[in-house]
Amino acid sequence: MTYEEIFAQAKEAFTGGDITGYKGDFAIQVNITGEGEGAFYIAFKDNALDVAPYEYYDRDAILIASAEDFIKIADGSLNAVAAFTTGRLKVEGSIDKALELQKMIEVMGKNGKKADKTAKKAAKKVK
């Protein structure tokens, strides 16, 4: 997988999710190691999400992971805390701010489940 593909998947995972109700702020740089190596940032400030393919010098934390592990974290199939405790994710800087990213992912997952339930109810009414 190339850096561009990794960044596109990560950006889609974050910008395609519903973060309604998330109240936090963070600026995190993500360093991808191994295949597709590179850096990008995810920032949430003043209720605005920004994901861009640049290093972020005014960051709260740096997350370091392989592309495979970070994509799993981004899509919610790998918990960031579990990845950290097993050594699959390294954190430099503020652990508290790094945890904000996991909180946002959890909000997106809950909102996605709510949307799925709403869609299923609507589909039943149409039948």
Description:
By secondary structure, this protein is an alpha+beta fold. Helices cover 46% and strands 25% of the residues. It has four helices and five strands, in the order H-E-E-E-E-H-H-E-H. The protein has helices spanning 3-15, 67-74, 80-85, 95-126, and strands at 26-33, 38-45, 48-52, 61-66, 89-93. Strands 3-2-1-4-5 form a five-stranded mixed sheet. Helix 1 (3-15) runs parallel beside helix 2 (67-74). The longest helix has 32 residues, at 95-126. The chain is globular and about 35 Å long. The termini are far apart. Residues 115-120 have low confidence and may be disordered.
Features:
4 helices; alpha+beta; five-stranded mixed beta sheet; 127 residues
Write the layout of secondary structure elements.
Layout: H1 3-15, E1 26-33, E2 38-45, E3 48-52, E4 61-66, H2 67-74, H3 80-85, E5 89-93, H4 95-126
Parallel strand pairs: 1-4
Antiparallel strand pairs: 1-2, 2-3, 4-5
Helix pairs in contact: 1-2
